[in-house]
Amino acid sequence: MASGSTCSGRSRRGLISCLHSLNCRAEDAHLVADQELRQAMYRLIVGFYEEAFNRLPCETMPDLLGLLSTGGFCLGLLDPVSNIILNTLALLPQDASVAASSTSPPRPSTKSSSRPGIAAWHEVANRSYHSLLGFLMAYFGCLTKVQAVRYLYRADANLPLAVSLVQHDLYVEGEEAVLDPESDRTQAALKWAATTTGHPSPSILAQLMAVRLKPGDLDLVEKKFSADGRNPLTAEDVRAIHRTLHLMMAPMCVANISHTKNGLVVHVYQNLKASWSETPPSVVFSTTDARITSTAFCWDGNPISSAVQLGLPDKLQDCLRIADDQKHALKTPCGDGDGCDYLRSLKMYLHGMIHNLYLQALKLLPTPSGSLMRSILKAGHCYGSCDPLPNIILNSIWYDTCGSPLPVSDHSKFAQYNDVLDPRSMLRPVVRSLQGLAKLALFAYPQSSTARAMEKLCSAKCNTVHMLLSSARERSEKTNPFHEAAMAAGHPLPLELGELHQLLFLMPDERSAMLACITEAQTTGGVVPVDEIRFLTTDMWS
């Protein structure tokens, strides 16, 4: 397996993915194997349901038990037990807690005859387990089911911690590493995971995890769900939390904005203490020629997940330290074979990163681009002497202008077609671009393994410019790294592409002029002046 510096100073990434794999660990390693992880996770989650049941006032509020065993998933952005309890309370009808008594009787010292056994949690624990796996696989898109189990096992089924462990191995840092409960990515993963495992209301679960609480309400949740305050909840506690959740999950007001011939008409529906009041429209009109836009205004505050996840960085470091202490159990070397799940995840993650770069490049190009689409798919690789995005554009325009062997008569026909693209057509340039990038990374770090090269690319976000600048100058004088990269990637004109990027290095003024065209389009939201770059490319190439 490849080695690389981590944020905590340890030497290897991908340990959690590899330590439980028979393909990567030593045969005599005393670690839980993949086939045993599922049972270990199941026993852990069943214990969470036992704890949640002990904390809920099911004697005074009998409906809680049914909701707990059907929709109280441990899927969410808090710790597992808090997720179970809050997901259960969120499913209570709006007036359910009103009927409950204000105090709950003291709990008996021995088990009640109505207390469910462990078997009662089998189905919901199993569905919770699969929902956690589903979230990780949907959120990242580059993990196998087996890998998701490994990360969840090391995180004790704490989903935000498992996400942090995966992000650590994939070099996801900074703002990109923030698990935003309101983002489309997080919401889609929550809904998909809940839907595929039979949650009764996936939309409520996803909405709950994105709810924002006012300071006083956040203090209440933190007091009742923090590690120091996990005492049994009374019916009064349940009523207060339930009332807060339903109030904050409902939009504060909804404004319907109608665009009519008479101007804008605003119709506001306001939510006051869980009841709706309607304000009259500012303009009365009667017309069929109206375009109506609906906007929901939600309550402001802090995310509910911030109440009980304050110690997440420390937990992350503890998990990494434990894994690092066990690295002696790995085979040497590990990480370069086809059987290494970590290496496959790195490649899939990089494929996704490169795919997004192509989408960004296409947004900057005029539409329809006609024959330029052919050049993008055939030769618009993202490696070169510039950042990945400009490389895609420059390589495509250069190939279309100076390098394309397509006859002029056929070349003109492509301009008549609009661009139609799907993910499968982008697969070829994405895969070949990664092959070229990996060659450049190995050129810059000749002692590295394939996995280490992939890690370097993840850390650099596919930008090899600084890698090449830091490599030995005498090595670049003996061979053209861009030519080698183009050969490895199966570029149709590898020698010519290598020469192009050598020229860009030797002609900084022309290079700066081309990059300025792309930068201006990015900053202004416009399109790249393709004809201007064609002229600069032709002038430099001739």
Mean pLDDT comes to: 84
Question: How much beta, percentage-wise?
Answer: 5-15%
How would the global form be characterised?
A: globular
User: What's the total number of strands?
Assistant: 6
Order of helices and strands: HHHHHHHHHEHHEEEEEHHHHHHHHHHHHH
List keywords for this structure.
542 residues; alpha+beta; 24 helices; 6 strands; globular; disordered N terminus
Structure commentary:
This protein is of the alpha+beta class. It has helices at 15-19, 34-55, 63-71, 80-90, 122-140, 145-154, 159-169, 184-196, 202-209, 215-225, 235-249, 312-325, 341-364, 371-379, 388-403, 408-414, 423-444, 450-460, 465-470, 473-478, 481-488, 494-506, 508-524, 530-541; strands at 212-213, 253-260, 263-272, 275-278, 291-297, 302-303. It has a four-stranded antiparallel beta sheet with strand order 4-3-2-5, with no helix packed on it. The chain has a two-stranded antiparallel sheet with strand order 1-6. The longest helix is centred in the middle third of the chain and has 24 residues, at 341-364. The chain is globular, with a radius of gyration of 29 Å.
